[in-house]
Amino acid sequence: MKVLLLTTIIMLGLATAGADARELFGEGAMTPDAGQFVHSRSGSIITTGRIGALQTTTLPTGAGVGVMMNNGNGTNTVFGSNGTITTLPTP
Fold it and tell me: Which site in 8, 16, 67, 83 is 20 to 30 Å from 1, CA atoms measured?
């Protein structure tokens, strides 16, 4: 269930990004965007890279990994591998 949810989220993020194939699978899709900190109530989320319009993340307190999507309205939504969904202000 969690794998299906995470796969669906990633596919929706890629589909809504409006990117062409070069951006999705070329050098632009995998350009590292690592090392940014986004603060949440449970600690800092650290970005580890980028896949299309989504940023891959390491969640705080050993909660696993996830993907972060910019909502375009001043917030980001983080989808954790443990099934959590969190909306945070965009830094």
Answer: 16
